[in-house]
């Protein structure tokens, strides 16, 4: 696990939840496993490990061994048509979700809200990873924007939108920002 310096948080972009994904991912051939995140966080706060922390990822178009990828089960940006909502992939939102309309973000007005249970589970997972991996963390006020610190490989917990130009996830909703600010306390408690 030496070499893991960053935790990157993204969304699945799907209306489906993570239930059973860990079991399904174990059946994939090694090459296909590279595209999986290390962890999925379901809307109900369930955290599922999909592969070991020592495993690399290829979710950004190249082999990456320095980051831990955490995916929140979340449809992300939504398109409204009449009284219905659709994900960016065109999936109709069939379940009742909370919609985040706190502020438009990167050209989208509607986003699926990250649930309070997801925020709590994500915070616990990030605190565990910060301590276990010795990640130094300090809150970055540019959260949700392309971040030179993130791009430069600085240790920390980052949103995918801070690492990849054009990424629109996750929405930096108020509860997520507050959670990211609280992580600074964990790093200080661990001497990071």
Distance between termini? 17 Å
- Taking all Cα atoms into account, the compactness measure Rg is 16 Å
Question: Regarding quaternary structure, how should these chains be classified?
Answer: single chain
Uncertain runs: none
- The count of strands amounts to 9
In which range does the helix fraction lie? 25-40%
Strand content: 15-25%
Secondary-structure class: alpha/beta
3D shape? globular
Order of helices and strands: EHHEEEEEEEHHEH
Mean of residue pLDDT?
Answer: 80
Q: Within the largest sheet, what's the order of strands?
A: 3-2-4-1-9
Helix tally equals: 5
Biggest sheet record = 5 strands, mixed
Task: Summarize the structure in words.
Helix 3 runs parallel beside helix 5. The protein starts with 5 loop residues before the first strand and ends with a helix. It has 5 helices and 9 strands; from the N terminus they run E-H-H-E-E-E-E-E-E-E-H-H-E-H. With 192 residues, it is α/β, with parallel strands linked by helices. It is 25% helix and 19% strand.
Structure at a glance:
This protein has 192 residues and is an alpha/beta fold. 25% of the residues lie in helices and 19% in strands.
């Amino acid at each position: 696990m030496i070499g893991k310096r960053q935790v990157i948080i993204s969304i699945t972009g799907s209306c489906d939840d993570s239930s059973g994904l860990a079991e399904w991912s174990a059946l994939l051939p090694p090459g296909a496993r590279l595209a999986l995140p290390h962890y999925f966080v379901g809307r109900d706060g369930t955290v599922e490990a999909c592969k070991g922390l020592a495993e690399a990822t290829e979710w950004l178009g190249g082999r990456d061994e320095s980051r831990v990828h955490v995916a929140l089960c979340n449809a992300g940006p939504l398109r409204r048509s009449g009284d219905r909502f659709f994900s960016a992939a065109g999936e109709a939102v069939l379940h009742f979700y909370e919609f985040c309309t706190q502020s438009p973000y990167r050209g989208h007005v509607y986003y699926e809200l990250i649930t309070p249970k997801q925020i709590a589970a994500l915070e616990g997972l990030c605190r565990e990873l910060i301590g276990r991996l010795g990640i130094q963390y300090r809150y970055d006020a540019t959260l949700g924007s392309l971040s030179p610190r993130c791009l430069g490989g600085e240790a920390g917990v980052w949103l995918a939108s801070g690492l990849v130009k054009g990424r629109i996830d996750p929405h930096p909703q108020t509860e997520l920002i507050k959670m990211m600010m609280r992580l600074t306390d964990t790093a200080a408690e661990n001497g990071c």
